[in-house]
Amino acid sequence: MNRFAALLDRLAYEPRRNAKLRLLVDYFSHTPDPDRGYALAALTNSLMFKEAKPGLIRGLVEERTDPVLFRMSYHYVGDLAETTALIWPHPSASEEGAAPGPGHNNPPLHVPTISEVVEALATTGKSELPARVAGWLDALDEIGRWALLKLITRELRVGVSARLAKTAVAQLGGVEADEVELIWHGLEPPYEPLFAWVEGRAPKPETNNPAPFRPPMLSHPLEEEDFEKLDPSDFWGEWKWDGIRLQAAAGKGSDGRLVRRIYSRTGEDVSGAFPDLVEALDFEGAIDGELLIVRDGRVQSFNVLQQRLNRKAVTAKLMTEFPAHLRVYDILVEGYEDLRHLPFSERRQRLEALVERLDDPRIDLSPLVEFSSWDVLASARSDPAAIGAGPDADAIEGCMIKRADSPYLPGRPKGYWYKWKRDPYLVDAVMMYGQRGHGKRSSYYSDYTFGVWRDGSDGEELVPVGKAYHGFTDEELLQLDRYVRNHTVNRFGPVREVEYGKDRGLVLEVAFEGLQRSSRHKSGVAMRFPRINRIRWDKPAAEADRIETLEKILERGEKEIHPLDGRIVTDRETEGETS
Amino acid sequence: MALRSTDILTQTPQGLYCPLGDFHIDPVRPVKRALITHGHSDHARSGHRSVLATRETLRIMAVRYSEGFAGAAQEAPLGESIRIKDVTVRFTPAGHVLGSAQISIEAGGTRVVVSGDYKRAADPTCLPYELVPCDVFITEATFGLPVFRHPDTRDEVRKLLDSVHLFPERTHIVGAYALGKAQRVMALLREEGYDKPIYLHGAMERLTELYKSEGIPLGETPKVAASERSKLAGAIVICPPSSIQDLWSRRFPDPVTCFASGWMRVRARARQKGVELPLVISDHSDWDDLCRTIVETGAGEVWVTHGQEDALVHWCATQGIKARPLHMLGYGDEGDAEETSDTAPEGGHA
């Protein structure tokens, strides 16, 4: 457990992706089986045990500590698992009833390995669990206890995606991450055959997974200069749906039963969240499409979709209110035939035939957008409703263009698929706070909170509406950093408040993809994917936008939306860059 | 007739004051006669008419404030009794930093010990803490919460060396307070067999030289030249905490930001400072050692100067020990020394 704890500890503080990768590879190469396999399972959230509840931990720690001291400590540290890890008394201390003196000669307790912990969790009943956990906490040190609590509550939160962990395993043996991905869903913790294969000690594990995940094909943003180079007659157009990219796979298992699975674009099995959709997967093969919410034949906006995503429990009511729908645009495999080498035009025919055969209202085809020139496509993009999208236009965030002859390749190959997003919303806001960034930017004030005007009790005031940390050039970062340092009026740890008001302050033109209501933000709105579009050195702060500008955008997007519970899918920034 | 403890020691706006001896201990404002426990700038200030402190503390003050830091300076040899008016004082090692001492004051059969800042853990750069039994014990409580239990420093230093090994193309920049912590980190690195030069920020140089001249081996510790910064891939550089997020650190190749402090035990603290490799190395007593020391002194009464007073006072009550918080201002500052510039004096020195 100690090595795994040290790994989690480092990962939790390390902001750089490549450094995280290095830490993971180092761990996998220096840790024996089966420990490293269980660690991999923990990092990819593949462990099968029921998570421990915070109440269990609180109960254990309150039994062992002075309530006043615990309360003071919790107040200071601010996190239950961390407070527990730090305050947990040495087992000898509780017996003596005082601070431990030197020279207690209790035998050292057995420090559990991660394998022992995972194996025990799978077999320990609910009533025995507290004693088990207490025993481990007694034997571990502060970081070990912290890691244990994260592991058993299934809340690792160290900034490592399943994909990154698999990439690290692949790097261990110099194989491609996609190769690991292909066999992944046929494997189980602790993944000994996987490690043996990447280390060249055994052949590639056979995958007998009837419905494996296959890495999706991603697109590049269309740049201005691409229009010159690309010939519109080589390409087919589609709408870019503002949903969640999914892969639906189904196949017959050895017992002849149809296994159906839904994967996120990163390969996480999310079938459990969409039982209504899983039911509709009555085919053998793998198809690629967008998860949408469709009510009365009409696609709902991303805001509505989010209300389904945010729920933990999938109830019948939720499924009725937010019916999941798959709008498909590609097919990777049909039956046992891999179609990925075929040109897109042929795959499209196979896909159309499949959708027709399925004849299920929950799965339909993403229509092609006809265009003869880039100008025609541009007008479709700016007004999808007029060019055939009809009432679904609200859920469209631009166009996709795909070469008619493109094979289906994993990753983001160049030259085949492009996304041409709808123009972002723009708002002029005033910088209010600067915060130091991480990693290479750790000494720069690179995260900016900005606000717009609203009527306050003492006249107009700025209310924060978002925070952005990219969109600017390196040169602009230097200028912004200097601006923050030279206009600081207040400091709060890594955050500096800058001068702002009617007659002073810096206006930032902020671009964003959408808005939603949020009870967590003072302004009541949260921006999706905000970034600094331009620095308006020239614009007086008094002329920045007002909150009403945002309210209008919001109202347009939520004509038939239920009240939001205010939470945001935080990985939307990366997940959302789907096609 | 036994004296009341407040005849021996009391609280004034200048700091702790001994009426019978007419002197202050670690006063925060200039006074006639000051007894100084150790050289950190919140305890050892300049401008007193006369100062009594250990030889090392006097040297440290001279380096920090120039030779004329006080009207007169007198050395207090460790372990020797010194008569001041109606009391006898004695300086005993506190194990905090080089030259640090507890000051005990005796009169009429009552002994009061002002510990200053102290630690019980081993430190190759200063004399170990010596227990002084007493009636009234004046303790700090910088880490006075049971969440603070400092780990073995060797493990922390190995964590640093492992990282240097794993990322040989990056510079490891270690924030450490210029007096005590910086030199302790150097000495600990040497104990673990690290024999390459340890590079220093300019603000560390003079105090490090002072440590070396006191016979503490720290190996080769060149000052980082501005032009050299970009070439220090794989090196360990020690700088004041304020510099780890400052412009100064930007010139190093892809720096790993490290910080050696007891505060690094709490993740939110480390994150607030943008630290990527926290090293839990403290020159203060942790919770267990604070409690243990109070019990071992046998004191019937405990005064808590600064830090997390309330928790420690509460604990004393549960042990049947009379205790009160002094809520003294001007000491420590919970290590939250806000960055100002490269040359900022260390405020808190946890």
Automatic annotation (TrEMBL), chain A:
Residues 98-110 have a biased composition (Low complexity). Its EC number is 6.5.1.1. It catalyses: ATP + (deoxyribonucleotide)n-3'-hydroxyl + 5'-phospho-(deoxyribonucleotide)m = (deoxyribonucleotide)n+m + AMP + diphosphate. GO terms for molecular function: DNA ligase (ATP) activity. Residues 91-110 are annotated as: Disordered. Keywords: ATP-binding, Cell cycle, Cell division, DNA damage, DNA recombination, DNA repair, DNA replication, Ligase, Metal-binding, Nucleotide-binding. CDD domains: Adenylation_DNA_ligase_Bac1, OBF_DNA_ligase_Arch_LigB. It comes from the Bacteria. Pfam families: DNA_ligase_A_C (PF04679), DNA_ligase_A_M (PF01068). The keyword Heme does not apply. Residues 317-454 form the ATP-dependent DNA ligase family profile domain. Gene3D superfamilies: DNA ligase, ATP-dependent, N-terminal domain, DNA ligase/mRNA capping enzyme, Nucleic acid-binding proteins. NCBIfam families: DNA_lig_bact, PRK09247.1. This is DNA ligase (ATP). The lineage of its organism: Bacteria, Pseudomonadati, Pseudomonadota, Alphaproteobacteria, Hyphomicrobiales.
Automatic annotation (TrEMBL), chain B:
InterPro entries: MBL, Metallo-B-lactamas, RibonucZ/Hydroxyglut_hydro, Xnuc_lig_assoc. The keyword Nuclease applies. Pfam families: Lactamase_B_2. Gene3D superfamilies: Ribonuclease Z/Hydroxyacylglutathione hydrolase-like. Keywords: Exonuclease, Hydrolase, Ligase, Nuclease. Residues 26-143 form the Metallo-beta-lactamase domain. GO terms for molecular function: exonuclease activity; ligase activity. SUPFAM superfamilies: Metallo-hydrolase/oxidoreductase. Its EC number is 3.1.-.-. This is Ligase-associated DNA damage response exonuclease. It comes from Microvirga puerhi.
